[in-house]
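seq:
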Amino acid sequence: MAHAHEEPPDSPRVRAASLLRRHGWNATSPQVLEGGFSYWFDGDDACVAYVDTGGAWVAAGAPLASTERRLAVTEHFIAAARAQGRRACFFATETRFAGEVPLVSLQMGEQPVWDPAAWEAKSLRSSRSLREQLRRARAKGVRVRQVSSTEVADPATPLGQGVAALASQWLEGRDMAPMGFLVQLDLSTLPEERLCLVAELDGALVGLLAAVPVYARNGWLIEDLLRNSGAPNGAIELLVDDAMRRFCRAGSEFATLGLAPLSGDVSPWLRAARKLGSGLYDFHGLHAFKAKLRPHAWVPIFLSFPQQQNSLLTTLDVLRAFAQGGLVRFGLLTLIRAPGIVIRLMALLLVPWTVLLALPLARPYFPTPGVRWAWVAFDVMVAIGLFSLMRRFRRSLALLIASAVTGDAVLTLAQALLWNMGRASGMVDALVITVAVAAPWLAALLLWQAIRRARL
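struct:
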């Protein structure tokens, strides 16, 4: 991506960067210069960064505008979206904006905040475990140093190559497909102002912290924290400690690690979504990690939208913005990447399938009753194995089940070709045979992929 200073001075991104430096108060405001955003301007003194999902304009935080103009800009943006046949909403807004505008504000989580000047007095001194993590990392020989953000983002430099490998390992280790909007990994924006720290062990890169300024708040957003899988305990805490001390020396008054999604006082249906989605995203773990750094406060983060808009539909608009390519595509990519979800889904689907095989209506699809009951017994054993893996993943059991399902796929195909195809009559039979053949092949592929992902 080209940096803002390399673009024409009248380009939307350069204009947005200028307004960001004047009015960027939301913790997420520095991220509006990353890839994928469009910019809507209300005159020369206000801007909204947004993503067009096809059904809505999803804004990243509050408008970049003065206090006096913010309400009018909000109303104008909503009207402009409606003129294009789009809904409008503002994701990751804070209490200040929620109190200024006549919009519904639905809490979507909370973010931890620190006063860097009180980091040592309020955070370190109140947490023996945090101090111990820092001690361990230093004792192991982990060292933190500041590096040029330009070098970090340049794949032609040794450091840039190391960071790219670290980022690749981090992305590959996540169960969810890569997301966009406010959670993409982009180290190229604001190169002059960005703070980049690396943690090294014997000269090898084991961790990275990247922070960007929240201009109108005299503060910082720590937007990226990457850790090598082999990094000693405390390496990430050491990076945060170093960053907080730098913020303090610079006279900064605010620091945050950003949103902990679906945490805090969220609605019952969002709590249900958190529970259902825990196999894909470690909501509790992320909140717990940020909490152990002893924040000085937790502040709510909202999704703000017009009162006449449906809250569920608006939430789906936000999910589409993060999915960057459609929810169906994102879901399929995530299914391939998430071993736990694959195993759980296969176990649950195998139960009704086995019941169907045991019913009298399945008799015509098997050469003999013995063959039919052998398949039923086989599926029961596979289901038991899958439910066992759901409780605790064991590679040896997963390999055994994957091998058995692969054999199932081969035998099912052979039975379909040698027995079923010649006796099929009508679309129903063709559909049943197709599903019976395709299901074990797909299950085998997903299981082998799940085993590969589980090693990461």
